[in-house]
Structure formats: C-alpha cells, structure tokens
Fold Malto-oligosyltrehalose trehalohydrolase.
Amino acid sequence: MMTEQTCIAVWAPRPERVDLITESEDGQRSTHPMRRDGQWWRSDVPATPGLRYGFQIDGDIIAPDPRTQALPDGPHGLGQVIDQDFPWTDEQWTGRAFPGTILYEAHVGTMSPEGTFDGLISKLDHLVSLGVNALELMPIQPFGGTRNWGYDGVSWHAVHEGYGGPDGLRRLVDAAHGKGLAVYLDVVYNHFGPDGNYTGLFGPYTSEGSATGWGEVVNISGPDSDEVRSYICDAVRQWLEVYHIDGLRLDAVHAYDDTGAYSIMEDIEAVAEEVGARTGVPRSIVAESDLNDPRLITSAEAGGYGLAAQWTDDIHHALHTLVSGEQHAYYEDFGSLEHLLLTLRSAYRFQRSYSAFRRRIHGRPVDIRRIPAHRFVTYTTTHDQTGNRARGDRPSMNLSPAQQVLKAAVILSSPFTPMLFMGEEFGAQTPFPFFCSHTDEELNRLTREGRYREFARSGWDESTVPDPSAEDTFRSAVLDWSWDSEQQSIHDAYRTLLHLRGKLQLARPWLTEFDVDGGDDHHRWVSFGYEDVRLIANLSDSPIEVPYGGHLAYTFTSPEVREENTTLDAWGFALLTEPRRAA
C-alpha cells in the first residue's frame, strides 16, 4: 500500500529493466529509470495522490502497477495513486459481529438502473426496511470492458472505474454504515481475469501450466510465492482499513494452490483479526468452499483456520431439488427428505460419504458441539446457482409464490446465517445469466464457446444459452424495481419472516427438534425447531395433515391449525409457537 511518504516501487523479479512512466495532467509522459533492489525495483518519485503512472518493462510494454489503487482508463491504462484521506462520517460505527448477520448479495452493475455505487446507495433504505443487516458486493476489482460478473478481475488493489471508482466505493460503505448495514466484499484470489492481467510480466504471480478452469492457478505455495502472499494480504488490509470494509468473502478457496503448513486463509484471518483489534470494529472472513471441510471454520485453538463462516451449498441443493424436482448435474446427489434433514442437522450432505456426481467419497463430518451453526451461510439461491443455469433463470421465474416463500421460510427459520440474492425478496422476473464484455473479441468467442460446452454437458440446449458478451444479456439482468401485487406479497412475506427470525430467536444454536415424513412425492413434510417454536412445511403439491398444532405465528397460505395437528396447503408452511404433537 502506498502513502504520501513512500516512493513508487514494484516487485518485478523477471525483467532486466524497469522504467517508471508518469503522466502529467496535460497528458505528457515522462520516463524515470528505476534501480534494482533484490527482486524489487525502486524510484525516487513520491506516490502523491492523483499521480498517473505505469511501468515500462524491458523497454517494451507499459503496464499498470499490480498494486495500483485506481485504473481510471481501465486495466489496459495507467494506474493512479488515490488520496488516503476521505470525509468519512462513520466514526460511530462499531461494526457487526458475525453471529446474527443477515447477508444480501448484490451485483453493483445490475442492482440499480444506474449500475453504480451511488445507484446502490439509493437502495439501502430498501435493505434496512426488509430486515437485512449486511450488504455483500460481488467483486468490484477492474475487468476488461464495461460489463462483467466481476470474477474476471485484475489489479486486486483497485476498484472498477465504471462503478464509481475508489471514492464511489467509500461513499457506499460510509452510507451503509450510517444506516446500520455492514459491508462485505467478494474477492477472488484463485485466478486472474484474462483481459488486462499484466502480472506475468513482473513476476511469478501464477503457477504456469496449472489451471483452475477459469485461469492459471495463483502462486500461493510455489517458488517466490512469499511476495504473492504478501500481495494478497496487503490487498486484504487495504479493503479493511482504507475502505472500512467489514468483511470479505473469499471466492472458491478449494481452487487455491495452498499446500503449505500455514494456509493463506490463516494469514488473511490474522490480518482481519489484527485490524479488528486495533480499530475496535470486528472484521469477518467468509469462505466459499466445495470441500465440505469444517477445518476452515474450526477455531485456531482446535487446529482450524478460524474463519467466521463458509458458504454451504448442500442445504441449498437439498431444498432446491425437493421444491423444483430438478436432478441434473450436481443435483443428482440430492432429492430426498432425508438429505434435507441431514443438512438441517449438520450443514453437510457429504461427511466422508460417497457422491455419485463426483464419483468418489467427499467431505468430512461436522462436530456440532464445537462449531456454531451461524458459521454456515445458507440461501435459497445465489449468483452461482442462478448463473450456472443455461438461461440464468431465477427460481422465482419457475416457482409459484407459495414455493418461493416456503423455501425462504425453511432458510430463515434455520439457525444458519441466511443470505438473500438481490431481487429474490420480491420474486424478481429478471434473469441473472453470466455476462462479460472483454476488449478482445477472441476472448469473447472463447468464453461464449466455453459456456456452450459447459451447458451441453449438463444436458441444456445450446440455443437456450445467451451470448455472454451481448449487451442485451447484461441488460436482461438489471433488476426491475416495479412490482405487481404478487411480487409485493412475496416481499411482505420475506419482511415478516426476517422480523420473526429475530423476535422468535430462530438464530439459536443447533436445532434440537426434528420430524419428517417422506410418504410419496405428493405427501412430504418436514418439521424442525425447538420446544417453544417450530416450522412445519409441506414439500409436496397436495394438501397434507401434519401431526403438529399450536399457536400460528405466521403463514403465507391458509392452513387449518388445530390443537394437535395442522392441515397445510400444497407447498404451505406454518410457523408455530407452543407447538404440540399429536399423541
């Protein structure tokens, strides 16, 4: 991280010569020879705010600094030093500890018509009224072109200019804190995007010859990886300090080349804990992992990495298959009430058990005595679970309002940390397909063909897959904030469920009361909760009688609640207090 007191330097063990290129306000460029200092190259030019600069490598290509904090002209242009000073007004913000968090995942470019940080600020009152308390931004690092999910980011210390740049992000965080909302940032440290990544000119940022499927593996454990790890940790520190970010979501940590005795995740967690202790504002690290490995969220004292939480797809998959009936691709491992019950009991479907989709044993058992339930993030959908579909169609485009709210009731009545994906709270009818706009048309072609192949393997017709690089694909994903009466009813249901989550203390430690009846596909129900409150849910398309009664706290349909049993409508549920089971 650069300040006014430092001079510009760059880690670059590969070049034989590095020159600093600076640009004046009138566009005139100057060349400043740099001196080698081990693997670093240093200059005597101070990193003053506003300075536009780059590096010329071996007298040839001019590339931006891998640590640049701004790229006003995009990833192929010069970088810029930002002003560390900002008129923050969040001095009273004391942060939010992770237990009790309710996340809301949003894509800056499609959350509002403006597609900017300022546009998202205009939606903060909606989030507060809804009942969420933390906004999670999909990646905002620079990418090639103007449209992207964000997972093709480069320059891990910078902010995409089209969203509003560094100051736009700080305005959003400041405004969110002023309304009591924490802000999380999704960061990608498993690969670099293909458009505008110049790190290979400077040093071994990636492990050549090894790929994740999205790009070359980042060099976390190989030769000269110490500086790459520092590069990552310095970026983490910058987001938490300079931008007052409350937490980070680490994308696809299972794709890390992380084989050392100390995981990079431990290093990241250490930075978060140090910043939190020094500032008095807690910082939380959440991982997305496909490993079903509780070590990530086990305390350091017990031999784990100590992360605050991890995303848990198994609960989503178990619920989605039961409501939608889909069983393709990775859903083939799910589909029974027993699978849902297992995930509600212990988060993981696979705990050193066989996965037909993977064709191998997968996962590790969870010790629920040691790991609080809030360390698992659950959801009815995410950007991935929508975008991993050929058309990018949301569940709300295929399910009835009753089915949508039923899924929400299961998630929001569980003790896990819930996350909403933007628009689900009002049954959005806009899809969220994958989109990009690489500046190289060959990259666009390769991306398009890659998506076609991927979906063909899952049985989808190529003709249903929208062109990721077409502007219309992006435009289709922009949320439509004009609701009809049906959407308003869905929104009201979400708001009520979130209110009751707090009032009835549904985010307690692990669930203690379970019951289930598989019957057949037309008579399936599940019941879970505690002695004083219980959710009963009909996961079938026919009315059924469930042997639980009590006082009705909330329902979306029209159940008949009696003293010891309840008749639920198709896809109906009832949240009961003082529940009683028929003898």
The first strand starts at residue 7 and ends at 11. The chain has a mean pLDDT of 95. The chain has three domains: 7-80, 103-440+469-502, 513-581. The longest helix spans residues 485-503.
